[in-house]
Design goal:
It is built from 23 helices and 2 strands. By secondary structure, the protein is mainly alpha-helical. Strands 1-2 form a two-stranded antiparallel ribbon.
Length: 439
Amino acid sequence: MKTVIAGALMFMFIASSLDTNAQCREFKWPEDKSKAEEKVALYGDAMKQGQYRAAASPFIWMLKNAPDWHVKLYIDGADLYDNLAEKEKDPAKKQQLVDSMLMMYDLRIKYCGDEVNVLNRKAFYAYKYNVTNKEKSAELLKLFDRVAEISGTKMTDGNLVAYMTVVQANHVLLKNLSDEQILDRYDKIISIANSKIKEDEAAGKTKDVAKVKEYIGVIDDLLIGMVKVDCDFVKNNLEPKFRKTPKDLALAKKIFGFMLQGKCTDDPLWLEVGEVIHAEEKDFGLAKNLALKYMGNDNLDKAETLLKEALSLASTPSDKGDMLIYLGSLQAKKGSKNGARDYFRQAAETGNKDGYEKIGDLYYSSFNDCKKSVNMAEDRLVYIAAYNMYARAGASQKMAQAKSQFPSKEEIFLFNWKVGDTMRVSCWIGETVTIDTRD
């Protein structure tokens, strides 16, 4: 095994004198071609049979004597050392093998080019073996910094999460990163991820889009584990960026989610970023939540617009019923009881019995609006109308409450009315009810 390592290290010395511009795409045999062919066959057959130790010697010969043979040499070398490293139990020897494997990627870049592709591969395998190795943490982070710098959207999807995990490893093992340094790398990773999503969406790669979005969730969780992501974090670190790029959808989503998690949705910024998201991506849940927030802030016109949008986006009778209830409540808040009743009736038609209860509430609260203060029995008819609606809703407690306000036997006797007679409720209610008494 020492021969394998020594051979690889010696190759580093030999390689320094070779043409670094060669791309290794055509086979270039050494002078003793027959022997080289024999060595390739020997190490190739040994690797196919899983005999990686036996493959080491002929492979080293090729490294020494035909270093610019073909890019396949470095692909095979990385595979050989990877398999040897996986099986090695001794930690020190294992690390030597890992280092030799990673060296294959460096040499491949040096003599065959294709740095973006190869460095992404190197980063993946360096992460595989070294992510929990305290001695390698800083070096690994430097490698991923370089990968991100040169790759952009060519950074492999898996390396996005790996990069953030390496940041976490440095934070935990070495405590060598400030919050600002962590955030700088987080921003870099998220920027790459969002650019990849745009490219994948344009190419119609829906599965890749879903995968990267899932990875972003993992990256966010890693950030939260390192930096306190609360409302102050958003205001101090993310809002200034949003002010510079107020149309940045990805950033708006990040702020929206973090503020929701931090329970600071009363801040106007939450509504502002929500509007940015809603303008680009119409969504039932978002429209509903924004509407309710505006409603709570007494911005009724804005709330009504969003509730109507949510109603149009609702996909189930239950959701439609809920939106109609909210729209009815908004009309009631505006003072339009007729308008409120219309929405509540529509809600009831979707199967939402709350619609009937809400109409009952409107009737119950209309005593002062409808009373004439001449005939107490007549004035109390609103409570019978309310009772009827509560009965349809199955609201037993409110039924009892309304019944307690029915006319008394004495009151209907004074006007020559009898239980069972029908009367029309005056004013806006306009319902026909059957006379009953509370006693």
